[in-house]
Each structure stands twice: as C-alpha cells, then as structure tokens.
DNA sequence: CAATTACGCTACTCCTCAGTAGCGTAATTG
DNA sequence: CAATTACGCTACTGAGGAGTAGCGTAATTG
C-alpha cells in the first residue's frame, strides 16, 4: 500500500487518526461536481483526469491518492448525485400537472439545465462501462423515474386518474426522462420549459387520461 | 494525391477508366454494414478501423484507400442506412395501431433487433462528433420519426383521430424512438415486441385519443 | 523539535489507435 | 507483353491519456 489511509465505503479514503498531514476532503465535492460536468459535456472516453485536475486546481497525482482509477472517481461522482429531494417528500401542489412541473422545475443539481445535461451524459456514459451503467441505473436513473411513478400512483389513489390506468404507469414514468435525454443528445432543439410543458400537457396527461387500454 | 481515383459524392472513390487494377467495390456494403454493427455495439471512440478491417477481412490500408479518415468511413456508413421502406410507401393495415406495429416489425436493417441496436448506437455516437451528429439527425433519425409523424397525420385525415390532437404529433412522433433508445441503452429490460406493444397501447394511442389539450 | 503523511509539480512508462510507408503480388488496360 | 493501380501485409510515427515515480514542500501528531 502506498497510502496509509484505507479506502472508504463512499469511494474515497477514510480519515484516520494518523500522524502527518491529513487529506483535504473539503475539495472532494468540487472534484466530483467537476467530474459530473465533464460527463455532461463530453463522452466518457474523453473525460480525462487531467481535465478534472486542471478544472479543480488539484494535481492529478492528488486525485489518484484519493481514487484508485478513473472509474472509481466517476463512480463516486455518480454516487454523489444521490436521490432527488422530491423522492424524500413528493411535491403536492394539488394537481398531478403541478406536481410534474414541480419535479421538472426542481433546483436539484443546480437547476433544470445542468440536471438535464448531467442525466443525458450519464445515459450516454452507461454505454461505455458496464460498471458505471449499473451505478447510473440503480442510483440515479431508477430513483428519478420512481418519483414520476409515485406521482402517478398517488394521482390514482386520490381519484384524479381512473384506477384502470395503473398498468400504464411503469412505462409512462420513463417518458419524460427518455424524451429529455433524446432532446439533449440530438442537439436539434433545446429542452426548455416549453418542451416539458408540451410533453406533460400533450403526451403524459393525455396518455394517463386517454381511452382505456385495449 | 496518392490515389488516381478521385473522391466520390457518396464518400468513397469514383470508378474511372484507368489502366491498372480497379477498386473492388463489391465489399463496400459489407464494410459499411460492419461499421454500423460496431457503432451499435460500442461507443464511437472504441470503434477502430483495425476492428473494421479484421471483421471484414480487408486490410486497414485498403480502407484508407477508400475513405480518407475514420469519420468519413463512419459518415458513409451512416448514409448507407438510408430511409426506411415505410417512408416510400406508408404501411396501410386499416388501423393506426396496425400501421405502427408494421413499422416496429419492419425487416428493415436486418430486422427489429439490429435496427434498434443501430439506432441506439447512432444516438449515442451523435454526442461524440458534431459532424456525425448532423448526418445522423438529418439522414436517419429525422426521416425515421417522420414515418410515425405521417402515420399520425393520416389517421387524423381518415377521421380515426380527432383533428384537435394535431398539435401533439411532433412530440408524439419522437416517443417510440426515444423510449426505444432508452431501453436499449439502460440495459435493464430488453426492447422486445411486448415492450413496443405496451408502448403503443398504453402510451401512444391513449395520448392521441386522450382528453383534449388543456 | 522529529516523524509522518498529503500536497503540487515534473517527468516518466505503457498502451491504444489514427493514419502512413514500403513492399511484393494481383488484376486490369492497351 | 509493359504499364498501371489496387490489394494484403508488416512495420512504423505521433498523439492522447491512464497511471506512476520521485522530489521538495506543507500540515499535521506527539
């Protein structure tokens, strides 16, 4: 072992009661945030630790003292995303539409613009590494879609949506993320608020309230 | 100029009336097809011309005699996809549902499985090269979504769908491709026929026939 | 204070991959 | 036949990027 501090559960190193200069953990969040920004901006293969080092003002060797490989650092960045605050307490505006827009307008991860870019980048990065793909799915994509799923379920419980639409929910919970990622990646039109409003009013809500399943 | 044969409009070299051994064009389609398979299988950065050469039984130098750069070969591969046969003559099964499923079940590009993999790979590759992104959008993604769009338009013309749903069509035409790409990339569940049937019956048709826009 | 360990820095190794050079051979034209 | 040009092959150059070594310095503990 080169380092005296053992690896951490969270992917970084554990602080211990050692003599000697301690790890400067204060910059870890900034490092992981920059890693996310890079994943949002360019494909996995062109995210370099040199770039992370430069943008954070740390030395590349310092990054490698904290994370053993590029994948471990990116994995930690993915885990740092965490769950959306809406998962802890579902928005409750009084209508399903208002709730959906509350999730869309959430300030989480720096606001809609950055969040959408990060999500699209992660979806693309999932094709480059099976390891990262699992983490992205289990720790980011699935929990996020789950918020939409729970909003739909609750709308049924409240009688806002007929019960026989329940079978549509699993697929419907993916529609907003799927359309958002496509918009972000195709570079044709911006994924702005109007886009999401049209999506909610023109697709999601009609699909829930539309004719019963065949 | 190293080669005596000038570049082609289609991205390869023009056959001319030269003395000497002529280009063997018979393997061009196989080369572009393998390039597409590789783009379907791995990210752009890990598609190597060495792999194309090995898998096609050609020498890498031969590939470079035909296409000047990796991007030109991939561009030619993208252009070789062409338009879906359904764009030339829309399926007409008698119902919108049957028409949508006809597009989904199309044998185009080797059948649904390969076609979906290729589309998902191209969508991801679009993030790696702005040049390729334009070609993918203009020559593959947009024409494909246009088939769905025209089916929806025709269903309105025929009275199968109320006229006031027309505004939903542009977004709705992206739903099937978007959901398909997400399924293929997330690696969670297969994008099999059941998936598309659920998508059509549970999302697309209800979204078209659902309550009028707010 | 001494010992210890992290930091930034420079420089390095190793590997992959785009693209090229040169050669001997195969397939054409005239 | 000679001339020409594509082919496969091997070998190479050059760039980029993961990961490491070693040094001088900074920040801790005791």
Write up what this structure looks like.
Two copies of one chain form a homodimer. Chain A is mainly α. Chain A has two domains: 25-79, Arc Repressor Mutant, subunit A (Orthogonal Bundle); 83-209, Tetracycline Repressor, domain 2 (Orthogonal Bundle), CATH 1.10.357.10. Chain A contains ten helices and no strands. Chain A has helices spanning 28-41, 49-56, 60-66, 70-81, 85-88, 96-104, 112-125, 130-157, 169-186, 193-209. Chain A is elongated and about 65 Å long. Mean pLDDT of chain A is 92; it is low at 1-10. At the A-B interface, helix 7, helix 8, helix 9 and helix 10 of A face helix 7, helix 8, helix 9 and helix 10 of B. Chain A binds a DNA duplex (30 and 30 nucleotides) through helix 3.
Defining traits:
homodimer; about 210 residues; mainly alpha; Arc Repressor Mutant, subunit A; Tetracycline Repressor, domain 2; 2 domains; 10 helices; about 60% helix; elongated; disordered N terminus; DNA-binding
Structural classification of chain A: mainly alpha
Low-confidence stretches of chain A: 1-10
- How would you characterize the largest beta sheet of chain A? none
Please name the CATH architecture of the largest domain in chain A.
Answer: Orthogonal Bundle
- Kindly report how far apart the N and C termini of chain A lie: 63 Å
Whole-number total of structural domains of chain A: 2
Helix content of chain A: 55-70%
- Strands of chain A, total number: 0
Report the average pLDDT across residues of chain A: 92
What global shape of chain A is seen? elongated
CATH class assignment of the largest domain in chain A:
Mainly Alpha
Oligomeric category: homodimer
CATH superfamily of the largest domain in chain A: Tetracycline Repressor, domain 2
